[in-house]
Amino acid sequence: MARATGIGSMPGDDFAGALAAVLDEVPDLPFLPELPHRGPHAGMIGRTLGLITDLGADLQPDGWRIGVGEGLDQRRARSRLGQDLDIAEEMLDELAGPLKVQIAGPLTLAASVERPRGDKMLADHGARRELGEVLAAGLTTHLADLNRRFPGVNLHVQLDEPAIRGVIEGSIPTASGWATHRRVDPPEADALLRGVVDVIVDAGATPVLHSCGPDVPVDLLRGLGFSAISFDLALTGANDVWAEAFDAGMDLWLGVVPSTDAPLDRDPILERIETFFSRLGFDGETTTERLVVTPTCGLAGASPRHARAALATGRSVAARR
Asked: 0.90 cut: is pTM over it?
């Protein structure tokens, strides 16, 4: 049977309540929620910087900056994550099976945080490499902690890479806004991603790549060891690269449930899924066990009622597959 899960973010500031909703609505593939409404230290970038101990980070008026010493917000991010994991450890005491966690991937992280003297880490090859290395080191420690806290689960680690296409195409704007950063060539992008994927695999976890941006670079990702790609179906064409990736063993996590308040009708969602796989040349029996139904993106912008209903709709759609 197909399964359902969420991308990661949820509305509100109550971690225990958000986790309870996740466990109720997507019990076959639950995830540890992120609550960005609690502030920048709780969002995707701040949460990930909280894992890094070898490079200090601080929150400046124009965003996160690396290499300026550990600031209050980085310490707060680390503390908040620890508190959330304490709550999750108690709530998931008897959980067996999969559990998904999320971190920002190295390409999006480099496109989001600044160097000590300004502009993005993306602008400097050495800075990108160092950021990838400290991210891998921080993730190693994080996964060891998760394996200790949740010994009965099969961890799925989702790398969030919404900026991946812009990074490899050279369309990420510089700080001035008058130019764009030079493209990161595929071999370097491959090396940065592979360094993190290797850490995930070495920890016995399952690596998943998520991008809710258009034109996910499937060819780049296919040989990196990811078990699945999570993407927004509305931004994706049913072309040969997806069929080749599926044939090569990569599962497909389809973002098809509206992530902001909108009507939730199962039949059109099911029809879109069937049409996509049919155009790829796969029938329902082939795809059912390797399909995960998700919202189109994170649910932080939804009302609490819609967020819960979106997860429930994904589970209902998956059950009908």
From this structure: yes
